[in-house]
Every structure is written in C-alpha cells, then in structure tokens.
Predict the structure of Enoyl-CoA delta isomerase 1, mitochondrial.
Amino acid sequence: MCVSPLLVPQQRNYSTPPKIRVEFDQSTGVAVMHMQSPPVNSLSLDFLTELCISVEKLEMDKSCRGLIITSAQPKVFSAGLDITEMYGKSPEHCGAFWRSVQEMWLKLYGSNMVTVAAINGSSPAGGCLMAMTCDYRIMADNPRYNIGLNETQLGIVAPFWFMDTMKNTVGQRTTEIALQLGLLYKPADALKIGLVDQLEPEDQVIAAATQTISRWLAIPDHARQITKSMMRKKTIDKLTSNRESDIQYFVNFITKDSIQKSLGGYMEMLKKRRA
Amino acid sequence: MCVSPLLVPQQRNYSTPPKIRVEFDQSTGVAVMHMQSPPVNSLSLDFLTELCISVEKLEMDKSCRGLIITSAQPKVFSAGLDITEMYGKSPEHCGAFWRSVQEMWLKLYGSNMVTVAAINGSSPAGGCLMAMTCDYRIMADNPRYNIGLNETQLGIVAPFWFMDTMKNTVGQRTTEIALQLGLLYKPADALKIGLVDQLEPEDQVIAAATQTISRWLAIPDHARQITKSMMRKKTIDKLTSNRESDIQYFVNFITKDSIQKSLGGYMEMLKKRRA
Amino acid sequence: MCVSPLLVPQQRNYSTPPKIRVEFDQSTGVAVMHMQSPPVNSLSLDFLTELCISVEKLEMDKSCRGLIITSAQPKVFSAGLDITEMYGKSPEHCGAFWRSVQEMWLKLYGSNMVTVAAINGSSPAGGCLMAMTCDYRIMADNPRYNIGLNETQLGIVAPFWFMDTMKNTVGQRTTEIALQLGLLYKPADALKIGLVDQLEPEDQVIAAATQTISRWLAIPDHARQITKSMMRKKTIDKLTSNRESDIQYFVNFITKDSIQKSLGGYMEMLKKRRA
C-alpha cells in the first residue's frame, strides 16, 4: 500500500512560514484562503500538502460553507506546478508529488463548499487548473495577467483530467485549440471564451468574490451540493478509478531524458529572464 | 408489475374540463396543443396523463408531422410540477406521479414530430423541461416572464435527465451555474445562453412557431427523424434503462421529512403571495 | 477478409490526370494539398484513394509537419461525396466506397500533422466533413459560398461519426439544429457558430493558412500530437471499433429503393440546374 504524503503532515518543514493563510468569518460562513508562497505560489509538494490539509479542515467544519481562493503574492495567482519537484528527482518523489496534485484537484473539484477563485494575478498551467476547479472565477482586469493551460509550450502534456476540467469549463472545441497551442489568455479573452466568469478592477476582486459567494450561499446547501456533485461526478470518478495508472503514466513521462531536457531548458530560460 | 397511470385513462375525472386542447390542421400537418389548466398549467398527474395521451394520438396519426405546444393561460407557459402531487402524499402516489413526468419527457424528447415550444409566459422548472424537449423554442419578449430549472431554490434537485436535457441545450458550464443557483432567466438572457432560440412580441409567438415549423417540415421526415433520434438516443436510453431506480430515488427523496418541510414552507409562501 | 481499395493503388485509372497535387516545402515542413478533380472535387472512390495515399505518404515523412488542404477548382472546396458512387451501384461497390470515406476521415482526423483547411469555395456535406477534420479552418469571405452537413436535404442521414465530428466542433445544440435542417451556412454565419475559425479575402486564404500553421508548428510536435490524440481518441475509437457495422448500415440504407429514388431525383435536379 502506498502512503499518501498528505496523511503525513509531520514531513512538512516547520521551520518555514506557512504557505497558506486562512481567514474564516464565522458570521458569513466564508473562508478566504490566501496563497502566500513567495515568489509565485508554485505548487510544490509542501504547498499542496498544506493546501489540502487546509481545505480538508474547512470541509469538515460544518459552519464553513464557502471558500474564496486568492493570492497574497503580487502579480500572480499561482505559477502552477513547481518544476523543481519534477526535474532531476527520483521516480518515487515524482510520484508522491503527482499524487498531491491529484489530491488538490479531487478536494477542490469535489468540494461541498461554494468555491470562488479570486484570480488577482497570472494563472498559468496548474494555477489555471486550480482556478477551474472552483464554482466561479473572478479575474483582475489587468491586461498584463494571463491564464491558461500552457503545458505544450513547455513540451509537456496536460493530463486527461486537466483536459476534462477545461472541457467542462469552455467546451470541446475551445479546449482543443487552447491545449494544442498551450494558449495563455488575457483577462478579456478569458472572459470571452468562458475561462473566467467576471472581470473586476484588481483591488475589487476579493470584494466581488465575497458578493458572489453570498448569492450562492442563499441556495439551500443540500440541494446545491447534490446538484454540483451530479454535474461533476463522471469527471471525478474517471480520475478516482485511474489514479494509480495516472501516477505511473506521469512518472514514466516526466522522467524521460527528452522531457527532463525540455524542463531543464525551460528552467534555464526562466533564470535568465529573472537575471 | 406496476400499471402506468397513462394506460388507465378511465381514472381521469371526467367532471373537469379537458386540460389540453388540440387543434390539428390537416392541410399543414401541424397540431397546436393548448395547455389550459387554470391557473398556471401545473403539471399534475391528471394533466400529464392527458398530455401524454394527446401526444401519443398525434404521434400515431401519420398525417400529423408537427406539434406546437403553447399555453391558453395568461402570463404562464407552465408553472412546472404540481407540488400538491408530492406534498403529504403516499409513496405510491408520488411514484405514479413521477412515472407520468418521465413519460411526458420520453414522449416529447423522443417525438418523431417536429416540436416547437411557443413559450407565451413564464416557464420555471418542469415548464422549462417541457420546453427544452422541443426541437425549437420561441419565447414571448416580455421581461416579466422567465424560464429556467429553479429546483435548488425550492431545496430540491433537478434529476439527471433534466440535467442532461439542459446540458444538451446550453452546454455543461452554463448548466452547472444555472442548476446550482436555480436560475430563472428573462427572455433576453435565455436567448443569450441558448435556452430559447428566438424572441417574438407576445401576440406573434404562435405565428412565428407556425412559420418555423413549416421550414422544418420542408425536410424529408425520414431523414430528419433518424437524425433527431441519433442525436438524442444516448440521453433517452439513460432514463429508459434507469426508469425504476429513478422513481425509487425520487420517492425516497421527496418523502423525506426535511424535503416535505421545504415544500410545505414553499406552498405557504405561495399562498401568502397570492393573498 | 476484405481488401481495402486503399491498398490497391494499381486499380487507379492512370489515364486520368492526378486528382491531388501536393507541394511540399522542405524549408517550412509544410505541404499544400491541392484538390484538382473537375468540376467540383467530388469525393469519388478514386479521388479518396488518391487523397489517402497522399496523406499517408506525408504522414510517414518525418520532415513534413503541417498540411494545408485547399482546392484548385473555382468556387468550390469540395462538393462532398460523389453521388454516382452510390447510385445504381452494387452493394460491394457501395461498401468499398464507404470504406474509403471512413479511411479519409480516420487519416485526417487522427493525423499527427498540423492540418489547416483553406476553404476557398463552397463545402457542403463530405466537403464540410473533410474541413472539420482539420485543426483549423480558414474560409474565403465570399457570401456566395457556404458550408455545412446538408445530408437531410437530400433525404439521407449524416452517419454518427459525421455527427460526432460536428459536435466536437460546434457543440450538441447547434449540431442538432444544423443536422436536422441540413443547414448550409454562409461564411459569416459559419464563423459565428464556430464551424470555421477565421475568414479571409479569397486571394489571401492560403497565405493566412500558411501563417496559422507556422504558429502551430512553434509548439513541440510531441506534446501537441499527444494532446490532439487525447482530445480526439474517443471519437476515433468509436468508428474504428464499429467500422464494419457502419459499412453494413450504409450499404443497407443507400441501396434501399426509396433512397435510390431520392438520389436519382437529386441528380436529375442537378443536371437541369446545370443545363
């Protein structure tokens, strides 16, 4: 049996500050989850472990009915999967990492809470995936930000459940183009194709999310939850029943020499860009 | 074996006037079905039984090729399922009622006739379902009317085949939002999301439906019918092969104390609003 | 066992000029396939056989990464399936013909190359199918041209894989209307529903296709190909695993007296229109 890293929180390095900060307003039943992992909220194994534990705690708290996910970092919602978790790492590490990505998706896409993404910065790849798991997406109306599943631009492939989540959001044809080209959309274009639901001035994104969530919370929880679950069940079941083979597939793919070389080149490019 | 109420028309109370009036124009091959059950064409067991018998008669009449469904009541197309059929009733009654809702959907969604909904009033819940079974929807352009599956607002859940019908009409993402929030759309918004296909001034809805249907009837019946059946087969098969379990699920759900309480509260609210 | 006509190129009548002309630019890795079968690039058995052989050759040439399909005939991209291959022909001939239509679709819809349709003329029925197999569609902005699956207008039915291809392109609801009515869309309307992706002045269609394809070729082949294959696999598998029964169904349908009569009437009408 494989022990999930998510069940072993003591593995977390407690010398670092928390990567997730949760504010829960008991009076409204809404929690705001601030992602605060400098510089760009990369989805590392540690980050995802913390995030999943936080979501699970809120999920088990009956008084928490809504969740807003947002970033405490400037200019970025989340930069997506942390490439250092897949570059030059053992197959075991890559597998544990991938399991935590799956876990994040399963927890958020299947959440009983109303979930709203307050996308106050760029949100490529895994960041876009996280936003797409929510019930509603509000993005800062800043043309320097973008959002999308840009995996192919890095020479890698969005797995089937990323694909399914996008199809459920923007439909088959738009997904086919977006994924093949690894497109990143500016907010106005993301709104046009339905990748986000609403644009707001940057400083009003969280306020708008709070307003939206109160509208969703006016609906009886039980009826809304069953409806959400029925709409998403097929997509969730597909990963749940293929979880191990999906991990195996990812590990085989990502540890290939050619893919490692692509990732290495991409990291070099990022380093140079920063310098 | 369970005898369908639809096969026992003698159970109908013949002291009440007919709830359905059909005008069939032999020269055009088009029937117009006027729903005339005051005050709001609620889909009661009697109403649905009459409607299904009418549709079946037309279906078997080879000279009838098109069907327009409209309302003879002011301001409303149909208010949806008759709550009195599910409130304080025996499981047997609830089951017979649900079977008649299924039968209505199966007959209309799988009809060989060209079907056009002339939506000359509001059309919530079951009224919206009925409209969505048609090949084409023309709605009166009156901003006081609305249409949608608003079940969650009543604390209940649109069953999977309501959901599938809506997904086939407006797509996965719009359905996800519409059903979770139980949204009712004004005509202009319904047109925008594709829930209706055309708006017309209220007094021209039926004329427009007649014009539309003549265009559809210009297509050879055989080819059009096979095409329609191929497009809808998967959705129809899903209910056909899960009919009994769907009834069981509905009866178990609707007879729960908490749901009965919700329905009771809703009926009280309606009474007060009328008074 | 049934020998595919595609494997027997020597059956081709070498006294006729080639129906397909391929220009391959080694420097860009892009091939342009000109359909040049007068008068209207009808998809005959010979035409499809040539086309499939050409595509297969390009597919096996690693240096060829992109394919533009266009017409060398004035005013028409392709008029669709050659009715003379299904009218008054033996079941064996109809079956061999249908297999070649399937083969064209399987080769193009599953191509590893980037495929762009440069639709420089009308593209009904099978012509529209061919265009829909491509990754991207650019149509000449000439309101006298049209595109669509108009099978029902001829009294025949678009088979399930035509239907699936259209659903993948424009969604369920638009497909339901388009196929039942056999709609042919002008370029502006085709753009609006997403049946084509871009309009260009007639003399710039190929230049635009070249520009588009270079953008797609900027994506690493491997990642793009896997993505494309994942997006289309389910649709392709459905035909692959039902190929023989689909042929049988087609042959039974098309050889019916009533259908043969329809086709005969249609051919008479075409003849008169030309005269």
Remarks:
- Residues 83 and 195 of chain B are 24 Å apart (CA to CA).
- Chain B has one domain: 5-274.
- Chain B touches chain C through 22 residues (CB under 8 Å).
- The mean pLDDT of chain B is 94.
